[in-house]
């Protein structure tokens, strides 16, 4: 009886887990059902937030902004990634991408032309780039916003140049781009490098008001003739040309400095020190082991300089000099480079000290947002002063400093005599007339008054009334010390009185120009010009990512459109909202 009872109890205990397992199975089915519902809800939310059109726009931005290959769209992994992230939506094909490129380019061009139509003064930069047996002509456009006084930039052209590149070809391209965007009458200056082709082009085709009509150049549209259309001669004139200031400084370092060093007593020391520096650069550039050693020992990435950028070369020497004696010895040993002698290290340290002002000036000229033509003269004058200050303490570079100062006077002679550059500097609040000799300031005030009196009164009024005096964005906007003069009172002020008050002021911010409407207009007119061609060189910065075997199927038109869309993505929206 007891055994049977135990057996029944045992059987009863065996029956209870079955019931629990049944409940667990029901709970599991319920959780699975809820999981499916959540998954469906997630899919519905994604489908509402991410439509196929939205995914296509995101992929389009990814391709254009990062200059990705069009073949990415056909990669199985990329398609799976898009399908997995979007719960079943597909990646667009190349045909759809080409269509979106056409639509985006047309939209970008319309927006850009609309912005340029309201701009009064424009500066353009032009350059030619050649790679893989193909040449491209690039042009960028720059202006200053009338209200915020901020620099605005846009790319206008990235066109393929076929055949022989002649003066007529370059002049025709520049003229065609200016006409295409309706800015030929607004361009103050076109900034180019100091190469002879561009300088000769502008010397050949620049319009001089003193010349007769017979001396004006004509541009013949060759494509029209080849297509069999009636031959038409188009009047061609180019704006004044502004030489690249940063290129001029680089020429001083690479040409004049090298000539002074090669003929002086420090020639052998310069050769030996720089040869070891270049040996380190070569090992770090070509061998990953060398780069790893430099990063491990120096705790920093060693920059390998390019050919056309001296300031990058200077930064690389600066990093080598910053290493301690132990670190530099270990680096030379691991890279199997001859060790630096004490005199060579002293030479390099003085090299870094002497040329620091020159490297700083190059950085200023290559900036874009806060760099104006009015910055050039004060920068060059300050550079000369700082170089002369170091001449007495220099042990190795005394003669080189003299040669560089003389080269600055020769190469910037045209700029120092330019009336436009002087007005641009005088209308920059940071400098005003402080950089001029006291005997020349009265003459400059008269010149500013003469230029200001020729300004359009309507333009001056609009510029002054556009200021929003109630905006408070910082402490300087909050604190005030009296009522602001109304616009009518400012307009009634005499031209000479306004110039006097501006010259006597001490504010360095561009905001103070809002109180001097005529000076502000002079600033907009003469400081729209950039001092260097750095922006158009940045237009070519993605050349290594674009010119590859996978992109050779792109036509020249689509190649240009992708580049312009990438450069102008911050100014114009790529896709419709």
UniProtKB/TrEMBL annotation:
InterPro entries in the record: RNaseH-like_sf
SUPFAM superfamilies: Ribonuclease H-like (SSF53098)
Recorded superkingdom: Eukaryota
Region Disordered, annotated ranges: 1-29
Stretches with biased composition (Basic and acidic residues): 11-29
Name the record gives this protein: HAT C-terminal dimerisation domain-containing protein
Species in which this protein is naturally found: Haplochromis burtoni (Burton's mouthbrooder)
């Amino acid at each position: 009886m007891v055994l049977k009872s135990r057996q029944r109890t045992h059987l009863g205990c065996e029956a209870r887990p079955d019931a629990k397992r049944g409940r667990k199975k029901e709970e599991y089915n319920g959780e699975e059902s809820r999981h499916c519902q959540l998954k469906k809800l997630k899919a519905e939310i994604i489908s509402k937030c991410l439509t196929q059109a939205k995914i296509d726009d995101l992929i389009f931005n990814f391709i254009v902004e990062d200059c990705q290959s069009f073949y990415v769209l056909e990669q199985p992994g990329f398609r799976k990634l898009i399908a997995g992230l979007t719960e079943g939506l597909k990646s667009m094909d190349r045909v759809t991408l080409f269509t979106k490129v056409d639509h985006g380019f047309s939209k970008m061009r319309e927006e850009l032309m609309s912005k340029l139509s309201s701009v009064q003064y424009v500066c353009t930069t032009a350059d030619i780039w050649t790679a893989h047996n193909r040449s491209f002509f690039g042009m960028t456009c720059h202006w200053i916003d009338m209200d915020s006084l901020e620099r605005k930039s846009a790319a206008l052209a990235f066109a393929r140049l076929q055949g022989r590149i002649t003066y007529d070809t370059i002049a025709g391209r520049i003229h065609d781009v200016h006409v295409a965007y309706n800015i030929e009458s607004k361009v103050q200056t076109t900034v180019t490098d100091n190469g002879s082709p561009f300088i000769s082009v502008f010397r050949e085709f620049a319009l001089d008001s003193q010349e007769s009509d017979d001396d004006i150049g004509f541009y013949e549209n060759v494509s029209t003739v080849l297509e069999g259309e009636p031959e038409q001669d188009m009047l061609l004139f180019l704006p004044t040309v502004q030489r690249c200031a940063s290129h001029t400084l680089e020429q001083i370092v690479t040409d004049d400095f090298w000539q002074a060093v090669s003929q002086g007593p420090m020639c052998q020391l310069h050769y030996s020190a720089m040869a070891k520096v270049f040996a380190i650069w070569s090992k770090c550039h070509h061998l990953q082991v060398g780069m790893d050693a430099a990063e491990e020992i120096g705790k920093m990435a060693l920059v390998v300089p390019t050919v056309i950028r001296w300031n990058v070369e200077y930064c690389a020497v600066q990093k080598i000099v910053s290493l301690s004696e132990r670190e530099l010895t270990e680096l030379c040993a691991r890279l199997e480079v001859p060790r630096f002698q004490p005199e060579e290290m002293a030479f390099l340290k003085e090299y870094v000290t002497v040329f620091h002002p020159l490297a700083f000036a190059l950085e200023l000229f290559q900036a874009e947002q806060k760099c104006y033509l009015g910055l050039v003269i004060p920068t060059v004058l300050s550079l000369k002063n700082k170089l002369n200050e170091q001449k007495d303490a220099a042990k190795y570079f005394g003669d080189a400093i003299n040669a560089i100062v003389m080269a600055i006077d020769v190469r910037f002679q045209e700029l120092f005599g330019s009336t436009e550059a002087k007005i641009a500097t005088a209308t920059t609040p940071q400098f005003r007339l402080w950089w001029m000799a006291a005997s020349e300031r009265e003459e400059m005030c008269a010149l500013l008054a003469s230029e200001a009196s020729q300004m359009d009164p309507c333009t001056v009024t609009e510029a002054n009334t556009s200021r929003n005096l109630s905006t408070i964005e910082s402490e300087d906007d909050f604190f005030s010390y009296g009522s602001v003069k109304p616009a009518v009172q400012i307009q009634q002020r005499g031209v000479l009185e306004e110039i006097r008050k501006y010259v006597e002021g001490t504010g360095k911010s561009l905001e103070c120009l809002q109180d001097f409407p005529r000076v502000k207009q002079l600033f907009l007119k003469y400081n729209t010009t950039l001092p260097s061609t750095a922006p158009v060189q940045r237009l070519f910065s993605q050349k290594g990512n674009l010119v590859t075997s996978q992109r050779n199927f792109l036509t020249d038109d689509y190649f240009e459109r992708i580049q312009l869309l990438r450069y102008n993505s911050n100014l114009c929206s790529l896709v419709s909202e």
